[in-house]
C-alpha cells in the first residue's frame, strides 16, 4: 500500500472521530512532559502522528546507505593515501594527524546519521552527513514508545502491525562487537561516553549508560578535560577506560584541543578503542559535498556512484577565494542558495536566500566571504500532511521533513525525523520530532 494512502488513512481515522482523541492528545502532552523524550533538555516537540514508513521506504533507505557508504569509504581511503587530495579539505594539522591514526576496527564511520530530503528513491537529496556526535536516538525512541500507546495508534494497530526502530540496546551491542576487533581478549570493557559537559545531550547519554550497565558493562559519562593518560592507559580517577563512545564533535575538539592534551595523546597512541574515530571527519565536514563533485573524486567512483552523486548530492562550493565571480554568482541568485558554515552542528549559522531581503542577503554574504562558509544549491523539500491541534480541533497541514537515517556499522538502523514549515528544519527553528514507525 502506498505510504501516502497509509498516512491519509490514519489522518481520516482521527479527523472522522475527533472527540474520541482530544483528551488522549492532551494526556499524551503530559506524558511527554514527564518522560525521557527530550530535545536539548526540553520535552520533545511532537504531533499526534508519526512518520509512517513502509517496506518500499525501508528498501530505499537501505539502498541509499549501501551506495553512500561505498562512496564514503573510497573517498576516505583516497584522503589517507593521497596528500594532494587531502588539501581539498583544509583541515588543521592536528586533525590531519589524528585522521591518519588507525582505528584498528576498519570501519570509517561506525555510527552516523545521514540526513536526506526524501519522497522516494528517485526523488531525494542529501542534506548533510553527521558522524561524530550524531544524536537523536533517545528522543526518537522515547517518543515512539509513547505514541504507540496513544488511543489513535492503538486503534490504527487493529489494521496494521506497527513497530519502531530500536536504537539504544542495538547500538550498545554494535559498539561491543566493534570493540572486539580492537581487543578480542577483553570480554568486559570499561566504557566511557565522552563529551564536553556544556555540549552533551544528557538524555541520550543517560539512556546509553543505562543500557551498557543493564548488559553488564561498566560505563561512565565524562568530560574529556577530566581524563588522564598514564601508564599506557586513559583514566578517570582509578577507572581505566577501554572503549570510548565519542560524542565530541570535531570542531569543538579543535577549539578546545589545548584543554584535553591527555585525551589527544592517548588517542594518538591507541590507548583505547574510540568509536567513532577522528577519521569520520572526512565525510562529516560539510566541504565533503563540494569534494564529491570534483572530477578527481568522481574518477574513483563507479558509473552508478557518479550518477548517484550528480543526482542526489546538492552542488556545493567554497564561498571565498580570489575570484569575485563566486561572490557575484551567489549574490545575484539569492533564491537558489543556502549558506552553511563548513563545520558547525545543529544548523548553527545556516541561512537561506529565500528567507532574506536582498539587503539582508548582501550584508550577510559580505560578512561571511572568506570566513569558512559554503554555498549550496537550495533544495525544495518534499511534504506530507500531518495533524495539528488548533482551536480545539485536529486539522491537516503540510510539513516538510529532514529524514535522518541512522547508520550503525555501515547498515541502516533507524530514523530521526524532524518536520517543519520553514526552509531550515532543526533544533534552532520551529519543528516537531516525528518518530519513524514501520507499518506492515
Describe the overall structure.
The protein is of the alpha+beta class and 440 residues long. The protein folds into three domains: 3-73 and 111-165 and 401-439, no CATH class; 169-284, Rossmann fold; 315-378. Helices cover 39% and strands 25% of the residues. It has helices at residues 3-15, 18-33, 55-81, 83-86, 93-100, 137-148, 151-156, 169-182, 202-214, 250-255, 261-268, 281-284, 287-292, 295-298, 303-312, 324-331, 358-368; strands spanning 38-39, 42-43, 51-53, 111-120, 123-130, 162-164, 191-194, 219-222, 228-230, 233-236, 239-241, 243-246, 273-275, 316-318, 337-341, 351-352, 373-377, 383-390, 393-408, 411-420, 432-433, 436-439. Strands 4, 5, 18, 19, 20 and 21 form a six-stranded antiparallel β-sheet that branches. A hairpin with a 2-residue loop joins β9 and β10 (233-236).
